[in-house]
């Protein structure tokens, strides 16, 4: 069981010190850090080592936790700000409620459209927020990320209960077309994605392969790894989902959908062929064509705005953020909008993430948030 004890660092100030807060475009001078509500009875899944806490952070009377490695860590309080943004892109005219018809919850019962939509959006926020908090966005693999990635002998020697898909991921990588550093970068990315999905899941995520070259994420410039991995995972609360991911030098992108509505895994040519087959009367799961996918972008600059060196767990972050998403979205679907989410670190008084999320009927390149930059900071909390 985690041991809790109180840190005595001396008297820094009676209240959170606005003078010590980071002043930038994300959280300007005068931002009231006392006003936001944070339910500190639910872990955010964000922590930082006490010894490495920024000098600007007030740790007076902060209750520390002892991590698995015996090192004292600070539990980080997090909250969200939201805004709908009208955008002039092809998919903006699609009503959000039409992008997802239905989904199966973990009880294998049909869920409402709202539950399906809220589940996939909150999962996107938790996954992107964890990557942003841990400063994974735009990171380049230098050397070896882990022992598993470093050992470049026979791929079959990597199989283990913790990483059963690794040999498959390596076999699917065309090593003859790339220098070894590209393989390191790819496996480092895959490893991080897999670990965060595992924290959201009831079982080990399933690797589905790498997306085709014409997939919208495969076409992103300035990628920090050459290929776009695809995973299916069993969400602990919302059933089976699928995700594709790509890190670039200025942000991380991913598409996500409920399994069975997986046209987001297909490139444009494959979608065209799929529609043609259906028109010819060939048998196909109509639910797939009626499904929708999320595309999300999380900004690198926002990730770097937090002075703290944070560790993140997407599963715990999901549990902590779900009430906030429910508060803002309600059952109000804003047609012609994308959802902007600002992620605040109240402990270090800084923004640790900014995401833009769009929901689309399919995955062609016309429907994308790739060129949308953050705006409107700071975004308000829903209360």
Chart the SSEs and their pairings.
Elements (H helix, E strand, L loop, with lengths): L3 E3 L39 E4 L13 E4 L5 E4 L2 E9 L26 H21 L13 H4 L15 H6 L8 H21 L5 E5 L18 E7 L3 E10 L2 E8 L9 H12 L6 H5 L2 E7 H5 L5 E3 L1 H16 L7 E9 L4 E11 L23
Antiparallel strand pairs: 1-3, 2-4, 2-11, 3-4, 5-12, 6-7, 7-8, 8-9, 9-10, 10-13, 12-13
Keywords: Signal
Category by helix and strand content: alpha+beta
Number of helices: 8
The radius of gyration over CA amounts to 21 Å
**Average residue pLDDT:** 75
Please write the string of helix (H) and strand (E) elements.
EEEEEHHHHEEEEHHEHEHEE
How many structural domains does the protein architecture include?
Answer: 1
Largest sheet: 8 strands, antiparallel
User: How far apart, in Å, are the first and last alpha carbons?
Assistant: 33 Å
In terms of per-residue confidence, which ranges show pLDDT below 50 for 5 or more consecutive residues? 1-20, 90-96, 141-161, 280-290
Keywords: Signal
Signal peptide: 1-20
């Amino acid at each position: 069981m985690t041991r809790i004890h109180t840190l005595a660092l001396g008297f820094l100030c009676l209240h959170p010190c606005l003078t010590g807060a980071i002043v930038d475009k994300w959280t300007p001078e005068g931002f009231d850090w006392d006003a936001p509500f944070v339910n500190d009875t639910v872990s955010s899944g964000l922590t930082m080592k006490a010894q490495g806490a920024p000098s600007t952070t007030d740790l007076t009377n902060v209750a520390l936790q002892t991590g698995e490695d015996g090192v004292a860590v600070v539990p980080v309080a997090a909250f969200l700000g939201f805004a709908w943004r009208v955008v002039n892109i092809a998919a903006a005219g699609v009503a959000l409620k039409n992008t997802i018809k239905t989904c199966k919850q973990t009880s294998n019962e049909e869920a409402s459209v709202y539950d399906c939509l809220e589940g996939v959006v909150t999962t996107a926020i938790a996954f992107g927020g964890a990557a942003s908090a841990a400063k994974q966005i735009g990171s380049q693999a230098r050397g070896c990320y882990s022992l598993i990635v470093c050992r470049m002998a026979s791929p079959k020697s990597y199989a283990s209960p913790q990483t059963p898909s690794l040999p498959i991921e390596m076999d699917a990588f065309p090593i003859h077309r790339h220098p070894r550093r590209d393989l390191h970068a790819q496996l480092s990315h895959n490893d991080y994605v897999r670990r965060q999905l595992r924290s959201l899941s009831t079982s080990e995520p399933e690797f589905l392969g790498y997306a085709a070259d014409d997939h919208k994420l495969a076409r992103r410039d300035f990628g920090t790894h050459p290929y776009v991995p695809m995973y299916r995972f069993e969400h602990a609360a919302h059933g089976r989902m699928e995700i594709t991911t790509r890190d670039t030098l200025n942000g991380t992108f991913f598409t996500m959908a409920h399994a069975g509505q997986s046209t987001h895994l297909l490139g444009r040519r494959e979608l065209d062929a799929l529609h043609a087959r259906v028109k010819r009367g060939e048998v196909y799961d109509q639910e797939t064509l009626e499904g929708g996918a999320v595309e999300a972008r999380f900004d690198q600059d926002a990730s770097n705005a937090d002075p703290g060196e944070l560790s993140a767990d997407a599963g715990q972050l999901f549990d902590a953020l779900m009430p906030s998403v429910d508060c803002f979205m309600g059952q109000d679907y804003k047609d012609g909008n994308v959802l902007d989410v600002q992620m605040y670190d109240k402990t270090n008084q800084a923004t640790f993430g900014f995401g833009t999320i769009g929901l689309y009927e399919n995955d062609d390149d016309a429907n994308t948030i790739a060129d949308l930059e953050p705006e409107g900071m700071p975004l308000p909390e829903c209360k």
